[in-house]
């Protein structure tokens, strides 16, 4: 979570949850990335990479979690939501974040790709 931005205790709490999910992904043979969508200080959805198990190249943690959040809200617009993810989103996931209108993104580490 490197930048000059000030992070709240809640930011750290939700990022810890995302890291727990990343560990779960790694234990399942997936790339260890986890994500959580928060709305109104509560977990709306969470997930981790599923590309190997789902045989789906788009099943990145962010996409999996955005899809679950949209179902939970019965709305594809995730306005007012924050997505916490352990690794900086790739171009595909960044596009999905824009399209889903997530209001805020917090990521744990930069991805040099």
UniProtKB/TrEMBL annotation:
| Keyword Repressor applies | no
InterPro entries in alphabetical order: APOBEC/CMP_deaminase_Zn-bd, CMP_dCMP_dom, Cytidine_deaminase-like
One GO MF term on file is:
zinc ion binding
User: Which keywords does this chain's UniProt record carry?
Assistant: Metal-binding, Zinc
Keyword Phosphoprotein among record annotations: no
The UniProt record lists the CMP/dCMP-type deaminase domain at: 9-113
Quote the protein name from its UniProt record.
CMP/dCMP-type deaminase domain-containing protein
**Organism of provenance:** marine metagenome
